[in-house]
Each structure stands twice: as C-alpha cells, then as structure tokens.
Specification:
The protein is an alpha+beta fold. The chain contains four helices and eight strands, in the order βαβαββαβαβββ. About 35% of the residues lie in helices and about 30% in strands.
C-alpha cells in the first residue's frame, strides 16, 4: 500500500517566499520538518491505496479537474493551531471550500476512503512550522510572526497528487482545471 495526498501548489515565486519563511523558522527555532514538502494547500489528507489502483486514481483526478474552473486564492496573514503549527492563513474562499467538498465526494464515491482518511475538517493554509517546533520555541516564533504582514494572491489552476517514496513526498501527477473559454464578438 502506498501513501498519497492531494494539494494545490502556489506559483514558484510565492513558493520561494514561503520557503524563505520556513528556512528562517528552521534556523531561528529548529523547526525543519515543514521544509520536507513544497509550499502547498492540502485538499486531501494522506491516504493509503494499492499501487494497482493508481491508474484509476489518475483518471478520477483528471476527470474531476477538467470540470473545475480556476479561481483566485489570497493569503490572510499568519495563524496557528494550538502550540504545534504556524502557518500562512488563506482568506475566506467559498470556491476553495466548494472544490474541497466536491473532491471529497468524488474520492469517497470512487475510492471509498477509510473514515480516518477523509479530510472533513478543512482549514486551508501553508504550513511554516509543524510537529518539530518545540513548546519552548513556539511562543517566541509566534510572537515574531503574528504581527508581520504577508500578502499574496494567485490563481489555482490545478490539483497535484503526491506519493510517498518511503522517505519523501514526490509529485505524482498534476491535473489541470478547465480553462474558461473566451469568446470574441465582431
């Protein structure tokens, strides 16, 4: 059984800005775990599936993505989950919530995920520091981040499937949303 998850990736320039913040937190507060993955917004938490079903999964995601429209995502400063996670918050976004709900229904219908593999609690964000941020370092790191501004926006145009190779997560497919057609009148 292999391990997978599904996410939205920001464009390279924004990804680089986020990586700089992760590196700063790693250097100043020994929080390196978040550096193991590129900046992403998780749409489907990690789930296990047989490698023999990968082709089916790719088809499900390709068909799903083709029926979605690109949409804008904006950041909304920094946030935290208890004393464990620091993140860049995502501004309220009904389109992303709807995308997540539709994806969950599609995966549940087509893959029958286990209950603990379903991403029912959706809180979109870019993780900056996670489980290896010590309790001792959490408050100073949060104090340094919380009042800083961080503004960015981008257009989400695809879903990315990640697969764990035993040590790290690899991009295992990108599935593009349907581009709205533009018509010109004479």
């Amino acid at each position: 059984m292999s391990l997978y998850f599904i996410a939205i990736l920001p464009p390279e320039a924004l990804s680089n800005r986020i990586k700089k913040l992760k590196l700063e937190l790693a250097e100043n507060y020994q929080a390196r775990r978040a550096l193991k993955l590129p900046a992403h917004i998780t749409l489907q938490i990690p789930f296990r599936m047989s490698k023999t079903r990968e082709e089916k999964l790719h088809k499900i995601l390709r068909d799903f993505a083709e029926n979605q429209e690109p949409f804008e995502i904006k950041t909304a400063g920094f946030g935290r989950f208890s004393r464990k996670v620091l993140f860049i918050a995502i501004a309220e976004n009904p389109e992303m919530v709807q995308l997540h709900q539709k994806l969950q229904k599609s995966l549940d219908k087509n893959l029958r995920l286990k209950e603990n593999e379903k991403g029912n609690n959706f809180h979109p964000h870019f993780t900056l520091a996670t489980r290896d941020l010590s309790i001792k370092n959490f408050e100073p790191a949060w104090k340094e981040l919380k009042d800083r501004g961080f503004k960015a926006s981008f257009t989400a145009e695809s879903l990315v499937l990640f697969k764990h190779n035993g040590k790290t997560w690899d991009c295992f497919g990108e599935f593009f949303f349907n581009k709205p057609s533009t018509t010109t009148s004479n």
